[in-house]
Design goal:
151 residues; 4-stranded antiparallel beta sheet; 12 strands; binds FE2/S2 (inorganic) cluster
């Protein structure tokens, strides 16, 4: 094998091994915990024209326990009554005081910030300071048993 043949062969091998990594790095992602039911990925356009993506199924919602995950690296928590789709809300559980991630406390049924103690209800409303603004919310659409949002 001469130098030219070797370089061609090595270049093809490098492309073959790096292409999947490059494609994975460029793709957007929705991750959830726990894993939602299998979801189709239809292109849904709400009236404002922005693309919305499926992030959960109605069956993923449990009473009193927000369904949490990430979309494009941003955390979300979905709450509401699956039999009343209009009640479903999605918030970003990043505290509006100084930006700490605010986990759900199942006992108090609130998002409680571990940094300075602010708390929020499942719709993001401030229950206790020092935060003085509600959690950011995501637009939500429910269709065919699936919950869609945009980040
Ligand atoms: S960062 Fe949440 S209360 Fe300060």
């Amino acid at each position: 094998m001469n130098r030219r043949e070797f370089m061609t062969w090595a270049g093809a091998g490098l492309l073959a091994t790096s292409l999947p990594v490059a494609l994975a790095a460029c793709s957007s992602s929705v991750t959830t915990n726990p894993t939602p039911s299998a979801l189709p990925v239809p292109g849904v356009l709400p009236e404002d024209g922005a693309a919305m993506r499926p992030i959960a199924s109605l069956t993923d919602l449990k009473p009193g326990i927000p369904f949490e995950g990430k979309i494009d690296g941003k955390p979300f928590a979905i709450s509401g009554n699956p039999s009343k789709p209009e009640s479903i809300v999605a918030v970003n559980p990043t505290c509006t005081h100084k930006g700490c991630i605010t986990p759900w406390n199942a006992e108090t049924k609130q998002f409680v910030c571990p940094c300075h103690g602010a708390s929020f209800d499942d719709s993001g409303k401030v229950l206790k300071g020092p935060a003085d603004k509600p959690l950011a919310s995501y637009a939500v659409t429910v269709k065919d048993g699936k919950i869609f949002t945009k980040a």
